[in-house]
Amino acid sequence: MTNHWIDIGNSDCILIMGSNAAENHPISFKWVTKAREEHGAKLISVDPRFTRTSSKADFYTALRSGTDIAFLGGMINYILSQKKYFQEYVLEYTNASLIVGDKYSFKDGLFSGFDPKAKKYDQSTWAFAMDDKGVPKRDLTLKNPRCVFNLLKQHYSRYQPELVSKITGTPVADLKKVYEMYATTGAKDKAGTIMYAMGWTQHTVGVQNIRAMSIAQLLLGNMGIAGGGVNALRGESNVQGSTDQALLFHIWPGYLGTPNSKLGSLQIYNEKSTPKSADPLSANWWQNKPKYVVSFLKSMFMDAATKDNDFGYDWMPKLDPGKSYSWLDIFDAMYQGKFTGFFSWGQNPACSGANSTKTRAALAKLDWLVTVNLFDNETASFWKGPGVDPKQVKTEVFFLPCAAFMEKEGSLTNSGRWAQWRYKAQEPQGQSRPDGDIMVELFKEIRELYKSEGGPLPEPILNLYWDYGKDGKFDAHLVAKAINGYYTQDVTVKDKTYKKGELVASFAMLQADGSTSSGNWIYCNSYTEQGNNMARRDKSDASGIGLYPKWSWCWPVNRRILYNRASVDLKGQPWNPNRTVVKFTGEVKDGKYATSKWEGDVPDGGWFPMMNPDGSRRDDSKYPFIMQTHGFGALFGPGRNDGPFPEHYEPIECPVEKNLMSKQLTNPVAATYATDQDVYKTCDPRFPFVATTYRVTEHWQTGVLTRWQPWLLEAEPQLFVEMSQQLAKLKGIKNGEKVLVESPRGSVEAVAIVTLRFQPFKIGGNEIHEVGLPWHYGWIWPADGGDSANLLTPAAGDPNTRIPETKAFMVNVRKKGA
Amino acid sequence: MAGKSFLIDTSRCTACRGCQIACKNWNQNGVEPTKNVGSHQNPPDLSGSTFKLVRFSEHMGKDNKPVWLFFADQCRHCLEPPCKDVIEGYADDGVVQDEATGAVVYLPGSSKAPFDEVRQSCPYNIPRQAADGRLVKCTMCIDRVSNGLIPACVKTCPTGAMNFGDRDAMLALGKERLAKVQKMYPKAQLLDAEQVRTIFLVTADPKLYHEFAVAGLAPGISRKLALRKLFRPARELAAKVKVG
Fold first, then answer.
1. Residue B244: pLDDT band by 50, 70, 90 thresholds?
2. CA torsion angle for A329, A331, A334, A336 (degrees, to 10)?
């Protein structure tokens, strides 16, 4: 989230799309309800299925799964053509006025630079035009046909409501109603927010779904303000934390890109991956990246990391250029027999991953598998699963029982970027141990083996800094402090001396010379010499908008709303004085700001405003979107792998032969796989129905924790498949009876819930049915609970993130025996 | 009459079922071996181990848009509880009405009263029988409330659908909420507010929520209520004689 949970209560219009927040984030509805009741906020729910969220909406409408960009493209078109955008904001704070270079074009569904053989774009063709100083050219009159604003208009003029309706199946009147309601937040004293989740991300156009909404939010001036933002509702209590700490292949902690093997030294890596801006008005905050990289390397190797050895850069794993190592790729390689061993830690891939049929087969190719979990699960026991003969499985499986979250101390980072400390409620049960203890012991043994036996490249293991526990016990405080960072030597800055071993107070102090360490620069300031900020529990709030700055701690530097300098006008005064996020209160002399002072949230940089009270521009200010190289909110986003503007493509499996927007049916750079388990079918009469997956309140993820909880299981005991009355009639299915759901990859048995809440879609004159089922179940328990819905889903991924397309695929549904 | 009351504002309920599970947790109630029978409502009904149940009902509303209603059903803790009259006719250690709160709480002696008769006396179809023969239902978390805590279902509710407090305050809150909710839902109403301590605010015709949402909907109830009033003096006399 750019904003945070409480801030939803500040919104005037809440769009919930790609999410079923009432069900999967029940507490969020405290704030949704508050916004509606206290100042009449409108709630819009857009979902293929009428959900518990929809039941509370002021307006609900449906769309076919996988057509969100068509829907949102229509919204962008509406905002532009009806002039609902926030003119001053768009002109000053977004890249609307920037001129795009001559090489950029868009034709027949493809952006310029497409290489059909490599299925890749040459992104350099999307670059901005630069002046002789290397600053992007701008046209503040917005008349230049090559400025972003006009290219945007041109691109989305194609998204007419009638055409969008034919793609999404949403009635034209409903589209217009949603556009109209949401576009009212383009007024400078109105805020609109989006609450989205896996309904948007888990598509081969997942990133572009979010980009489309980001464009709408920028046009309406909804970024940086209270009650606005782009808000991802994370699917687990600590997903934000695990992302921040880089539980992903393509980044190091704090969103520092993982180097590839072509970047042969720290210097080359820094040169190639540190953005440069020649514009004095652009903060280009990522120019500080080398400081964060070196501080990270110091945290990894501490004293062993020196300037002479590139701070241990060579010891860090490198990617093969152009190669992806995501979940989908790992299991693809495993299925091809390219792994000998696998640690399945706190997860259940036999049920959670797309195409679990393939995943389960892949596990049998391993020599050994270690599972660390609270309860038995379908991964740990895959060797005795349905259709598996244990005698034929060579994999040796080890099960390490681990402690539950309430049996250990540590921090969780919620969707709103708040790192909240929590305490141990009770001792772990039986032989179970905290994950940290298991890791501490494991690492000790591995290091001993490297010491005694050597092996290829032992340096990273032997030199790794590992002061994270005592007597074999993991200490969460030591880890939290290392994440924050230390001075690694005495440092004197402006008459103040910081001693070696002192905690660094803020990432502004981090250095590229090895004098500081920080395991994750964005968490620098979370645990300082003043104490553990994550453990703060002060409920005071002077902001009046629910910032609660002394409750826990929020990255970065306790800034509760990102890009908050976009919430003020050029003179630093709030667009909406009733919901002030930050406000400039420096002294004025002769019509000019003379001293600098901001009030409210921690401002996104403490520079002077862009304009003095007398209307003169200042040259010591910075544009508000400081993480963007050029300082502007990105309407045109040349950094993504699949294009600078979101474009509608059909899912890899879809019910239509033609993409009505262009000749390009699917995302040309989407990730697909080629094993015999990777079968994708479009317009195949054997799989005529769109399917989607989701969750219910009562279960969590694959249900490893909740299926053993009798009260929860009692409330949602079995896998179900929801379908319309029309489809049930067509297939002779009665409510409550067991049916088979089959995809090109697998099949599951499920109880039919025949409901008014699914209605068929009119797609290009045809009636298209959609069904949906949750992925919480597995064969281990309960006995008649059904198996994972991911046995059906395809391993096809977004080209940027490789998140799988589990929200739109094709199935058949039939009566058992029919 | 003073004491306590619930206000259950269905306009805020998202059917997260936190209340249903919290009730089971606080009362340490067991589970039933449920199946999905084509509905999310589960267990299918109140039972000896289920005192609080979120009922789901769907129908087609205007503009061809579905309406999904949630009804967090539980004992209404009637000001003049007919079940109490029936149980007292059979046992003097079967039920109490707590003076401070007005909570109607069944005691182990309730097993002496015929279950069917007690159940039929309830206009809301609430009483159930535990495996050991006791009659059971929501206790208003009397053990929590008498120790200064709010009922478990109210404590867990994230949206403010479940409210609990002094009766006057709940009645006032109910009226205030009704006035606001009626702007969006003209058919909104408070159910039997003057007769019960569990006051539901509904946004649509109560029949659409649940057959027993409001007293008098089920046939025979009003007659039963009338009979109860008619016979009460005799029963009270009988009870007194028995005690004496």
1. very low
2. -70
- A41-68 pLDDT, tens per residue? 999 999 999 999 999 999 999 999 999 9
Q: What are phi and psi of A33, to 5 degrees?
A: -65, -40
Question: Residues 118-147, chain A: which have Cβ within 8 Å of B?
Answer: none
What is the distance between the alpha carbons of residues A738 and A78, in angstroms, rounded to a whole number? 44
> Per the CB < 8 Å rule, is B36 touching A696?
no
Q: Would you call B36 and A56 a contact, using CB atoms and an 8 Å cutoff?
A: no
Percentage of residues in chain B having pLDDT higher than 90 = 86
Task: Tell me the C-alpha distance between A321 and A317, whole Å.
Answer: 12
Max alpha carbon distance in chain A (Å)? 87
User: Residue B238: what pLDDT?
Assistant: 54
Check if B223 contacts A (Cβ < 8 Å).
Answer: no
Using N-to-C axis directions, what is the helix angle for A161-168 and A68-81, rounded to 10°? Answer: 170
Phi first, then psi: give them for residue A102, nearest 5 degrees.
-65, -25
- Give the domains, in start order, of chain B with CATH numbers: 1-244 (3.30.70.20)
**d(C-alpha A581, C-alpha A578), whole Å:** 9
Subunit contact B14:A37, Cβ cutoff 8 A = no
Strand order through the sheet with A418-422: A410-413, A418-422, A553-554
Please tell me the distance in Å from B149's CA to the nearest CA on chain A.
21
- The pLDDT, as a whole number, for residue B243 is 44
Mutation site, B159, B163, B178, interface A, largest A CB count within 10 A: B159
The pTM (predicted TM-score) of the whole model is: 0.96
Find chain A residues with C-beta within 8 A of B23's C-beta.
none
- Structure tokens of A165? 């309706």
Look at residue B236 and tell me whether its pLDDT is greater than 60: no
Beta carbons of A632 and A91 less than 8 angstroms apart? no
Residue numbers in chain A where pLDDT is lower than 50: none
Q: Do A54 and B68 touch (CB under 8 A)?
A: yes
Q: Which of A724, A785, A778, A783 is nearest to A751 (CA)?
A: A785
Task: Note whether A714 contacts B32, CB cutoff 8 Å.
Answer: yes
Tell me what the pLDDT averaged over chain B comes to.
92
Q: Do A736 and B37 touch (CB under 8 A)?
A: yes
Confidence band for B242, pLDDT divided at 50, 70 and 90:
very low
Residue type, A815: K
Alpha helices in B55-188, H assignment, sequence order: 82-90, 115-121, 142-145, 152-156, 167-184
CA distance B110 to B133: 8
Reduced to 3 states, what is the DSSP secondary structure of residue A473?
strand
Provide the chain A residues 713-732 that lie in CB contact (below 8 A) with chain B.
Answer: 713-718, 720
Q: What is the pLDDT of residues B114-136, one digit of tens each?
A: 999 999 999 999 999 999 999 99
Residue B220 banded pLDDT, cuts 50, 70, 90: very low
What's the ipTM?
0.95
**pLDDT value of position A470:** 82
Contact residues, chain B, for A714 at CB < 8 Å: 31-32, 34, 42-43
A chain contacts of residue B18, beta-carbon cutoff 8 Å:
26
CA–CA separation, A9 vs B207, rounded Å?
A: 33
> Closest Cα partner for B3 from B104, B127, B154, B138?
B104
CB A271 within 8 A of CB A500: no
Greatest Cα-to-Cα distance within chain B, rounded to the nearest angstrom: 65
Are A715 and B42 a contacting pair at CB < 8 A? yes
